[in-house]
Design a protein that fits this description.
The complex is a heterodimer of chains A (108) and B (173). With 108 residues, chain A is an alpha/beta fold. Chain A contains 5 helices and 5 strands; from the N terminus they run H-E-E-H-E-H-E-H-E-H. Chain B is 12% helix and 41% strand. Classes of the chains: A alpha/beta (108), B mainly beta (173).
Amino acid sequence: MKISEIVQKTGVQAINDFRDKNVDRVYISDMVSDIITGAKPNSILVTLQTHKSLIAAANLVNVPMIVIVRGRRPADDVVELATKVGIGLFTSDLDTWGYAKKLTELGF
Amino acid sequence: MSPHGHRWYMADIRAGYIVTESCHECGARSSFFTTESVPPVDEYREGRHYWIYQGNFQAVKFRLQCDGCSKHVDLEDMVALMLSTCDDQDCAVGRLVRDRGEGAWVYVALCKSSSHASGKCVSAESIEALDQYFNQDNEASEKRVTVVPCSMCSNMDTCRGIVIADAGLTEIY
């Protein structure tokens, strides 16, 4: 599914200019060490994390879309790095479980 | 499949802590991985070093295993990875970041002894396997990850980058 379709159907807000890549699975984690061992390429990463190391980890494992839940927003330098590596950053006012339910309703 | 013929996957994934120590007498630094439920903070003598606890962060250890043959790489000599943001043209890593250009990302594999007091760093075999693993799904894209050992940095104390570490998650402020 295209990122733009997920944005439209789950009501997340884009934080940066994103590339409309395909995603086909979901990974939920707040630990960067877990992300590099657990997340698969083309995953949507759902997290509470806003630290720059999140982007360093997601880039390594080819995650193209990160949804930060509970309305959190990362600092400008984090957004800049995500844009540079081609990762779309989004925020949702829902909590992790609420947003995960939205994704399961889409068939993930 | 990497161009080198291996299709790597992560195996033996263990959760634990990286504990960092420094030598009170010579200033050397060292790190080790432990799966103990509480990371050890003891001070102790080891040969000419007297190690003092400096801190810990949650981490995972893994080895790389080839799906097509029996080859595996333990990665026991690596404690973390760091996305380099170095722009120091007097540093080999900084020059590599500049020369590789857009779409290429240099990750520095950090070894157990960041002061390199032992003269050892992450092995060439580990670096090669990590490089192949993190690029094996990049064949259809312009993205390229380059993994280098931390001995390539001109000065680890001033090296700029983003360490992939879960620092501070067990602290209460």
